[in-house]
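Colleagues,

Please find the record for the two-part complex below.
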Amino acid sequence: MPVQIVKSAIAGVIAHVAVVEGERVSREQAVMMIEIMKMEIAAEAPADGCVRSLFKRPGDTVEEGQPLFSLET
Amino acid sequence: MTDVGWERELAELRERQRAAEAMGGPDKVRIQHSKGKLTVRERIAGLLDPASFREIGSIAGSGSYASDGTLTGFSPSNLLFGRGRIDGRRVVISGDDFTVRGGAADASIHEKLNQAEQMANELRLPHIRLLDGSGGGGSVKTLETSGYTYVPAIPGWNWAVENLATVPVVSLGLGPIAGLGAVRLVTSHYALLLREQGQMFAAGPAIVSVLGKAVTKEELGGAEMHARSGSIDDIAENEEDAFAKARRFLSYLPSSIDSLSSRTPTDDPTDRAEPWLDSVVPRNRRHVYKMRRILEAVLDAGSFFEMGRNWGRSAITGLARLDGWPVAVIASDPTIYGGAWTADTGQKLVRFVDLAETFHLPVVHLVDIPGLMVGIAAEQAGTVRSGARALASVYQATVPWCTIIVRKAFGVAGAATANHTRFRYRYAWPSGDWGSLPVEGGIEAAYKAQLEAASDPDRLREEIEERLNRARSPFLTAEKFLVEEIIAPRETRSLLCEFANLAAPLRRSGRSAFGCRP
């Protein structure tokens, strides 16, 4: 089954992780919330699948293009 | 004496035409196909309306001759050009032939390049360039054949630059493109690269590796990378997709600055009101929503043609139709830095507003801008100058302009929603939230002394915030007539269609005060 590495569209701080590793998610479901410019912006699953690994934890900083999680689709 | 006519010459003409149509010969054509690429003649046929290509310079090239002057071989020029039609409208098309010397421009006969650009300009026709080749000067080997060198000049470049201010220019990067080819690609109103087949660079991997860094073509200049760098506007998935995108881009534009774009019949009612729009913006100001869905709801169904999706991403830009009239659309994307203008967003906006101004397209701006992006990285990227340039482009624009404030409009970038000295064709949603500085970010700075002196600074901050939020209602702004109208979001489409119909007769053909730059 193909595994997709989902990268961050923006720089910011991980405010919240909404799933645990192994959890099934549907397309456009928020996996993490990234805080920037006083806003919380969701990093969404690009497709239905299973979250294999989470690469960031709450409080971590993230740069644009950095891997956030892997998704088995 | 018997007049035998010109049969011999006509036979030679046909022979030369056949040789030119064979391009680089069967082996080179086979190699081109084996890479999954079409030949230049197949591309021209695929893009233009059937049988509409009128080639110019069809037998230009390099002949070889026997001692008695008989033609023994012929290698055609590797730049083809001519006129044709797209959706019935006349265009100029030029294309590199990779099967002849890898598309190297020194085998193209420079005057053809010049004539293609000049024809587009003087006949006031859009120009589509099909690029698949290397640079302009060939290789250093040229020195051995010429025996001299020269100060570089690009044939026809005056026309290429002038065309940006005169006719729509589309460039499709369908193979590896270096040097002059790369500059031809980006000197366009709409440029794309073909995924995995098209790459663009100032100099290719062979030269870059000599300088110490081994890279692949794709790493150095692939479509994904350049869509993010902003050097191109779009990525095509295959050649047919590239042709479809070129046709679609041109459908929104006039043939030149001397005419106006045409209305297209539409079945989408102007009074189509989507009730979900009334609740699409979250009440919680920290939460975001999807602007592209709003665009689909308010523009003519299926009419939005996005350009530059992968760079300057806090602003969405593209062409669309409202009640059939072509318009240029700018819309904030709050999922990218809350919609704050980054440095590349500013650059993208300048280019897009210039396109609208050059081709007389009314602008619709859906605004959710918390300001210019802040922070060290943003300052290092030159965000202030870039934002100021975007602001200048908005103030220089003279095309009809309609603003919908969806949520935030703060600071300098918020003031770039429109030129405020023009008639303010503007509506705001009830989620409108504006000012010189967002309350959330401004309290620390404005009440610094009081917060430092307070025994419970968090509580004081909350009290101040609550007090300030009471003055934040958009109705208080409307009461002072500082925003003209607050509307139900579902009414947006009908109001935008009304704008497009009012704007249509106001459009003026002719040259704008300044032309586009690449």
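The first strand of chain A starts at residue 3 and ends at 7.

Comments are welcome before we finalize the supplementary table.
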